[in-house]
Amino acid sequence: MSTAEQGYRRLSRSGYLLGFGVGGFFDGILLHQILQWHHLLSLVDGVGDIRNQVLFDGLFHALMYVIAGYGLTMLIRSRHSLGRPAVGRLILGNGLIGFGSWHVVDSVLSHWLLGIHRIRLDSPNPLFWDALWFALFGVLPIVLGALIKRRRSSGTGGGPAAAVAMTTLALVGGVWAARSATDARTAIAVFRPEMSDGQIFNAVGTSGGRVLWASRGVWAIEWQKPERASGLYGHGALLVSNSYLAAGCLAWASV
């Protein structure tokens, strides 16, 4: 296989991966964070309280970062193929198929086979919401993507624009998934290993915060004045995060 053909195939796969990652971000942002209709393991016995639910939501988002990041890497490596005819349709079509595939996989695996969550847990008819989500965000994008790809032989160009659009969606989804709520008063903190629990409690109190919970060296803290969170750096903290991946899910949860 020629180098040009390898680049073209890599470009095609990047569309699937980026669409799949964006689908995961869309699911997590809308259903886990904004609407809070469910968490990843809402129906799994023994998972524990909201802390563990949020932890697994965070791991889910981390997996989406890996998939989307791999897709972006493949897109960059195959950038020399963006000038080929109808590449824009190929990227857009594969992106839609990848987006829909995430929702099909999630519906079949998570909702119906494993039963780890449903789309809307507070509904008297959860199957209705499962089927509606499956059709609107699973089947429909796949059909649209397939139709767009069938027309790829007609027309030229569009590759750079489609690549920029898919990259932008992935980056926006990644940033939003990692952000905290605008009025968040919580943060995740990690302290120096040699600090005792008593020293950490004193440090938190000095900064005007209170400890919500602690697990395996990670501390969740709440402040009445969120701007004081950075003061922990002067009291032995190695990381204080209330706006990126470490605290994004926690800040949206009701703790």
Quick take:
The protein is built from seven helices and four strands; from the N terminus they run αααααβαβββα. With 255 residues, the protein is α+β, with helices and mostly antiparallel strands.
3D structure, described in words:
The chain is α+β, with helices and mostly antiparallel strands and 255 residues long. It is 59% helix and 9% strand. It has seven helices and four strands. It has a four-stranded antiparallel sheet. It comes from Novosphingobium kalidii. Keywords: Membrane, Transmembrane, Transmembrane helix.
Helix/strand layout:
Layout: H1 3-34, H2 50-77, H3 87-113, H4 126-150, H5 159-178, E1 186-191, H6 197-206, E2 209-215, E3 218-223, E4 237-241, H7 245-252
Antiparallel strand pairs: 1-3, 1-4, 2-3
